[in-house]
Write a structure and sequence with these properties.
It contains 5 helices and 10 strands, in the order ααββββααββββββα. By secondary structure, the chain is of the alpha+beta class. α3 crosses α4. It is elongated, with a radius of gyration of 30 Å. The relative contact order is 0.10.
Length: about 280
């Protein structure tokens, strides 16, 4: 009886080893297939092997990979560690260790897909990661997978949107147009405008634009226009005169003008701001 039990245990061990061997092979295979798809740029194939790849927003380039180790994790997933190499046009080679967390395909036990990764994208080189870190969404030395990092960065963008709206609202009160008026030009379908833009904010602006809307007595829009409020930098606390020239204004009797801010410049100022690390608490 004892011999039978021992024999059964040995059979079970052999089955487990065989099963793990097949899973190990399948997990390594999907990593190789993923890189073939990645180098070819086949988005459908990439998504087939790594369904959430798009959430990463990028990846390290690759010329070749070498599988260094594969092990089964406590949660049943398999972790495949590779050495990735990329050689640029100057024949300089870069090398990184990347880990892939693979799981069985629920509909096909003989196939694996990539659930997550570590080091596939160098997030730390992006301003989005720096912002998420400085505002407390990502803690220093926090051990995160790529998907966990991407999720926290995405969450931090809610704060960015909030700060952007607050910035716009504040600037609309601080950067104003004064004494603006318009008159018909030599040809009545033209409007000559003139006024002064005043920067009462603490920001310097490389570019400021205006948006113009002309309406008739009934309030119907007859023409819209936009342009630059000068082409030189406007420092904080400074002002300057500007002119506008709009054609084909129809039977306009009134016009409304508004300062337009460059979205990229505003985002840059928010990204470059100083933060305490507790701003993440503003987002539920």
């Amino acid at each position: 009886m004892k011999k039978l039990n021992l024999f059964s245990v040995l059979i079970l061990i052999l089955l487990l080893v065989s099963c793990n061997g097949e899973q190990k092979e399948a997990s390594e295979k999907v990593v190789n297939q993923f890189y073939v798809a990645l180098r070819s740029g086949d988005s459908l194939e990439i998504k087939k092997y790594y369904p959430d790849f798009d959430k990463l927003g990028g990846h390290l380039k690759s010329s070749k990979i070498e599988i260094k180790q594969t092990e089964k994790l406590d949660n049943g997933y398999f972790e495949v560690t590779i050495q990735n190499s990329f050689t640029n046009i100057k024949n300089k080679t870069f090398s990184q260790e990347i880990k892939f967390i693979c799981q069985e395909n629920p509909t096909n036990k003989k196939q694996f897909t990539i659930k997550d990764s570590r080091g596939l994208n160098d997030f730390k080189e992006t301003r989005e990661f720096v912002f998420a870190n400085q505002t407390g969404f990502i803690k220093n030395k926090e051990d995160l997978t790529d998907q966990e990092t991407a999720a926290k960065i995405l969450k931090s963008q809610d704060l960015l949107e909030l700060l952007f709206k607050e910035k716009i609202e504040s600037l609309r009160k601080e950067v104003v147009i004064e004494n603006w008026g318009w008159e018909y030009g030599y040809v009545k379908t033209y409007a000559d405008g003139h006024g002064k833009v005043v920067n009462n904010s603490k920001d310097d602006f490389e570019t400021l634009k205006f948006a113009l809307t002309f309406v008739d007595d009934d309030g119907t829009v007859t023409q819209t226009d936009d342009g630059y409020l000068g082409y030189d930098k406007l420092d904080a606390g400074k002002s300057r005169d500007f002119t506008t020239l709009t054609s084909n204004i129809g039977n306009a009797t009134k016009a409304y003008i508004q300062v337009q801010f460059d979205t990229y410049d505003l985002l840059e100022s928010i990204y470059n701001n100083s933060y305490s690390g507790n701003e993440y608490k503003l987002i539920k």
